[in-house]
Design goal:
- By secondary structure, the protein is α/β, with parallel strands linked by helices.
- It has two domains: 111 residues, Urease, subunit C, domain 1 (Roll), CATH 2.30.40.10; 285 residues, Metal-dependent hydrolases (TIM Barrel), CATH 3.20.20.
- It is 37% helix and 23% strand.
- It has 16 helices and 19 strands.
- It has an eight-stranded parallel sheet. The protein has a seven-stranded mixed sheet with strand order 3-2-7-16-17-18-19, covered by helices on one side.
- Helix 12 crosses helix 15.
- The protein is globular.
- The N and C termini lie far apart (44 Å).
């Protein structure tokens, strides 16, 4: 179905800044067909199409948010392992619980994640998962735009790492959704050898796939890497070629001298996860240094086992407030910079510039509609500030992905939540 939206304010990105302007918005065949002044006559091709007109007065239409790092299936473990240190959390609590997850559980966990994402305005996400086929199948059913990778571990990709690698390639071959892209996703330097990273880098280059990994998340990870290899995790990534052509690097909390320069020169993206890093006691990434040195900065929630939400509006506010506080600089991480991290910068990291993260002719119609009369948004003195400092996700009333409404009037259209809850409860009981 094609749509013409009138009366709404559109969040537009021009000359490096966001602003809200009232425009008419035309959506056809899953993409933005035109952005016109109110009442302006479209070009003859657009004018000949049939559009369903929707009065969106009182709404802000903006690009859907992009969560650049998460583990969607881990909604099953929300609030399961809190208030413990990182090693206890990962190795003694989360890993054993993951071993009890079935494919049916994982599918339901993904759908639960998508319900939360959609309701809080996320339309695209980058995921590292553990269960072949469940992530892509659930994303396809929910209508989510996904960039997913099977978590890979081992010392050699073609021996003990082969089964997971083959699973990743099989899932890619079996998926026919245009909304789903695949990445190669070695887990971390403490579960993958430098040789493994080098092999993955070569496979990614050969196959034209994006790369993602966890990097320098904890002090222990960095110190152990220095002891074992005499180099930082970032230097290992450089030596193995994993950074060549750019990679998506989650966390990057504990940077050593020279690390940031290496990341910047490689064209790689840093995805900061402030809530997860704070909750696990891992500290805060040097975000101001990343920005000052020209690193492409994005934002992610991480999984709900460590966040414990997938709400990107909450994460946006935390990102700015945390770094203003720890730097004692109220100008740090402006609302404009934060909003870029979840839209324009994210699209750049994914190779989707001008297709995602913006409202412009030819871009994908991944759009969210916010109620500007929400009490916490009123009065609307500055739209961008309101989105970062006042919004909490409850203002999202409609969500569209590739021109299809996946939520309408705050009701999900693609996910049966009650059915999802029943499966999740069965897993919880185990």
């Amino acid at each position: 179905m094609n749509y013409k939206f009138t009366g709404a304010k559109l969040l537009l990105y021009q000359n490096g800044r966001f602003s809200a302007e009232e425009k008419d918005l035309y959506v056809a065949d899953g993409v933005i067909q035109a952005v016109l002044e109110p009442g302006e006559v479209p070009d003859p091709v657009t004018e000949k199409r049939t559009f369903t007109r929707i009065d969106a007065s009182g709404r802000l239409i903006m690009p859907g948010l992009i969560n650049m790092h998460t583990h969607a299936y881990m909604t099953l473990l929300r609030n399961y392992a809190d208030d413990v240190d990182f090693g206890e959390w990962l190795f003694n609590r989360i890993s054993p619980a993951e071993d009890r997850i079935t494919p049916e559980d994982a599918y339901a966990g993904n759908l639960l994640a998508f319900a939360e994402m959609i309701r809080s305005g996320t339309t695209s996400y980058v995921d590292m998962h553990m269960f072949k086929g469940q992530s892509s199948a659930a994303a396809s059913a929910a209508g989510m735009r996904a960039f997913i990778g099977r978590g890979l571990v081992g010392n050699d990709l073609y021996t003990e790492g082969l089964s997971r690698f083959e699973e990743a390639l099989e899932e890619q071959a079996e998926c026919d959704s245009t909304l789903i892209s695949f990445t190669l996703a070695p887990h971390a330097i403490y579960t993958c050898s430098p040789k493994f990273y080098e092999q993955v880098a070569k496979e990614a280059e050969k196959r034209g796939m994006l790369k993602q990994t966890h990097l320098s998340e904890s002090r222990t990870e960095v110190s152990d890497c220095l002891k074992k290899y005499g180099k930082t995790p970032v230097e290992i990534m450089q030596d193995t070629g994993f950074l060549d052509g750019g990679a998506i690097l989650a966390h990057c909390v504990h940077m050593q001298p020279g690390d940031i320069e290496i990341i910047q020169k490689s064209g790689s993206t840093v995805v900061t996860n402030p809530a997860s890093n704070a909750k696990l006691g891992n500290g805060f990434a040097p975000v101001k240094d990343f920005l000052n040195q020209g690193v492409n900065l994005c934002l992610g929630t991480d999984g709900t086992a460590s966040n414990n939400t997938l709400n990107m509006f909450r994460e946006m506010g935390l990102l700015s407030l945390i770094h203003k506080g720890i730097s004692e600089d109220p100008t740090a991480l402006s609302a404009q910079q934060v909003l870029k991290a979840v839209t324009v910068n994210a699209a750049k990291a994914l190779g989707q510039e001008d297709r995602l993260g913006v409202i412009k002719e030819g871009a994908e119609a991944d759009l969210i509609f916010l109620d500007l009369k929400s009490p916490n948004m009123y009065p609307l003195n500055d739209v961008v500030s309101s989105l970062v400092y006042s919004s909490n996700g409850s203002e999202v009333c409609d969500v569209m992905i590739q021109g299809r409404f996946v939520m309408k009037n705050r009701s999900l259209t693609t996910i049966d939540l009650e059915r999802v809850y029943r499966v999740v409860e069965r897993y919880k009981s185990r």
